[in-house]
Amino acid sequence: MVHLKINNIPVEVKEGTTILEAAKIAGINIPTLCYLKEINEIGACRICVVEVKGARSLVAACVYPVNEGMEVFTNTEKVRKSRKTTLELLLSDHKKECLSCVRSTNCELQKLSNEYGCDENRFKGVRTECEQDTSTSYLVRDNEKCILCRRCVAVCKKVQEVAVIAPARRGFNTHIACAFESDLNDAPCVACGQCVAVCPTGALHEREEIDNVRDAINNPEKVVIVAAAPAVRAAIGEEFGYPIGTNTEGKMFTTMRMLGFDKVFDVNFGADLTILEESNELLDRVTNKGVLPMFTSCSPGWIRYIEYYYPELIPNLSSCKSPMQMTGATIKTYWAKKEGIDPKNIYFVGIMPCTAKKFEKTRADESASGYPDVDAVLTTRELAKMIKTSGIIYNELPDGTFDNPLGEFTGAGVIFGATGGVMEAALRTAAEKITGKPLDSVDFKEVRGIKGIKEAEYDLNGVKVKVAVASGLTNAKKLCEKIKKGECDYTFVEVMCCPGGCVNGGGQPIQSAYVRRNVDLRSKRAKALYDEDKNAKIRKSHENEAVMSLYKEFFGEPGSHKAHEILHTSYVDRKNK
Amino acid sequence: MFRSHILVCGGTGCTSGNSMKVYDALVDRVKKAGLENEVHVTKTGCFGLCAYGPIMIVYPEGAFYSQVKVEDVDEIFNEHIVKGRIVTRLLYKETVGEDGNIKALNDTNFYKKQHRVALRNCGVINPEKIEEYIAYDGYEALGKVLTEMTPQDVIDVISKSGLRGRGGAGFPTGRKWQFAKNSVGNKKYVCCNADEGDPGAFMDRSILEGDPHAVIEAMAIAAYAIGSDQGYIYVRAEYPIAVQRLTIAIKQAREYGLLGKNIFGTKFCFDLDIRLGAGAFVCGEETALMTSIEGHRGEPRPRPPFPAVKGLFGKPTILNNVETYANVPQIILKGADWFASMGTEKSRGTKVFALGGKIHNTGLVEIPMGTTMREIIYDIGGGCPNGKKFKAAQTGGPSGGCIPAHLIDTPIDYDNLIAIGSMMGSGGLIVMDEDNCMVDIAKFFLEFTVDESCGKCTACRIGTKRLYEMLCKVTDGTATLEDLDKMEELCYYIKENSLCGLGQTAPNPVLSTLHYFRDEYEAHVRDKRCPAGVCKKLLRYQIVADKCKGCTLCARNCPAGAISGNVKEPHVIDPNKCIKCGVCIEKCRFGAIIKA
Fold this sequence. Notes:
heterodimer, A: Alpha-Beta Plaits, five-stranded mixed sheet, 17 strands, 13% strand, B: alpha/beta, Glutaredoxin, Rossmann fold, four-stranded mixed sheet, globular
């Protein structure tokens, strides 16, 4: 143990602790901007500087390890002035359109500048001029708001290991760019949006589609249908002040109607449908010696990853469309026919915790009705923004519910939003299909939790099923390498592009680095979903009556020719294109 | 036995002055005359007196020819080599006594006060021949270390010698090695910083070009001391001759078994590789250099952990600069006491300085620590040309500060320089005379660091840029006195808050000039006047009507068409058109044009 004093308060901490962590123990907060625990520990922004007795200059608390007998001062005049100057310098090279910025009131730079009473014009000078990168369907990069904290770069490189963005040029001309200054659209970006989730300012945000959705709502010819992904209900409350991990599903349904959507369905329904198709495909591959292990295909970032980095593993991907696409495809075929509506006039909006979904909806082979399965994708944040600008007092709303028939869902559909959830839902159905007997317990706890890679083996009536679950592409990469080298014999592998699964997706409400450091967003939000599953009356996808009658009335059975036409898709090799 | 040895400088300075053509011509003459067995022509490293290059020495007479052109080769060959008559007209004039006799080079002002330790072989041996290095005691120190000393003995000798890092910060070398020796690791690295980037400094280049084996030998000694088996020399790609000679030297050392496995028949194994720097100044900073060797964008990382604990590829590493290493074999051979007998109490040994700017003898000099600035500038450097008054000297490159004339008697060592607001740095010494504007000088150095900042930390990336913009306001005449205070405040902020040494020292040129030449700043601000007549925006070119003869020469040469007037009548300059290029002043034969 190391003993030190911070602002004259004695503290005892483990060796290797940073000043920042030690200060927290002493009840002292040191502001940070570039620091992301274990991901970006580079001491670059200099906001966290503190005085250390005997040191030549100020030191960065986020990376400086404590020493025995050290005396640290975090709140001296010199420290406060330095931090203020750092902020003022950052502001001098910042596009200050704070009043209308997408991150206003949720911007770490704005918050600190306000706290330190900065004069935003004290260091007026030339400003970096960079064009916005609006080349993709999912992200906007605005380097003029970038403070070069490099949190996005670190997340892209260390968490997702795709590293499509990095600092380019040097000195004052430094900016974040793709290789050879190409557009993001020409880079092998998987579209996960984890960079957006960690950006402290408005330099990175999703490509907004709110206006398109409003136009559709205002168009009398359009039947506008909305459905939210499982993970949305676990996080949207954060935008309205609810504690992290509060499930506000009922208010979400009520709001959707108030916003003017004609029908409120649910992607949870599509998740149950996915399980029927996917477990059928899995059993087929096992029985008929198809390519194994089979990979899940719900996560569009993961799909892009395989297409760009491991195209040789494309045959391992399930051909099932994602739950969102299945929902859209079913609405525009089955439901349209049932209701006698021309699919041309149906406008389907997916509410997603994800930025890659904005890309997914544009993929080829995702328009079963002849029209795109999905017309617009709003992130959780965009839905919250729509709610706020509509004057809806979210917190005071009564709980509502979904519309039938494509809203009904089971607990299995709900847990899709957390890593391991798809696997667990699939196992619930596959197990009963193989054994022909109801499960004693539907809980497959081995595949739950935020561990990067989880493995389990089940004996289902003599059929050995070996499964693996990975979230975050660093972990996915490890699995891909093992599979490529033939070092494992998994039957079924679930991969979610974002660490912790969709609850921690790139489209979810943004929490500051401080919050992320002290709260595990992944497990808190996941718990909200597992709680809903626990309390659900029906917890197995194949017991979803709406899904079953959909098969009876329309698809016939899972894996049928019709199901294949409408609910399955294909992939492209983007590496060798 | 050769009756005559001709040593032609093959350093970068002389090479760019065509010395290799001189060399080729001499070899050709010798061959054609059939004198290959009598006359030996060698290309060597740098002699130091770069201002008078290309340089060559002919032994046994010790005739020191300077500014030799290819056209001079015939005369030198026919007269001196064939007939034995020294060509006095081509000798470096300092070597010719009043009586017409030749003085030994070491008796000339330029060399008299010098004491060559790091540069001892430069200009003496052929750097491309390991045999010549060995003939001058080369690799004897390594042999001694491997066969007679323990690693701790080696570190003790280096520590006792008082050797401090010659790259800039002056950290005690022995202590650095001790830290790395004490660090536990299955792999350790020895690195050499040859990414010499200070404008005007080229001693490391000279050593690599003139005596590459000294560095290789020292690195092997260091590796033995700390327990390493792999080294890297990080050398900038802008030094092609150095890279080439290092490559040759490493190859020869391997062939001689002085690099590789079981060196000198002992268990000690060590090998070396070269890594080329791509032109980033910041890669001279130790952590940035290592990050660059690892294959990443060359940017510094926070310390601690220090390289001795967690350096290259996360392993314990020592990094020393070329000049530091060049001292090591000598210290081993001649002993710690010998080295410690030179220099001052806290700065032992010698230091190489690169003299540049407004000084007669530009070039490289190696002097004992504690020599005064006056001795270097006047006795060795020959003072400012054209009888101009010495105003200041900048040491330490863009990280250093300006030392004013009244401190010229300061004995130069690490601590004295820091005490007067500058630093040793790598040893660049740029001399300024009365025609230099100190604000402009500060701006020049700061522009360099602004450009070379890696952009990682806020203080350096934006801070230096804003500081530069403030300096521009001063030289443009748009600054206020409050701006000067704000500048000073920003300087201290940058020093305190920057991540690495580059940012922490970047404001030094501004701070030192603000401190010693505040009146000059104030003249720019208050009187909108540049006392040295340098800052263009504050200058007005005027024609003194009384002196102008109306010859029209100025008007005809003005590139901006700003001068008008009738023949044989006084001309006038239109200040709105004038671009202040100074061509008119150069052309006027009557001194009728003045800057005001």
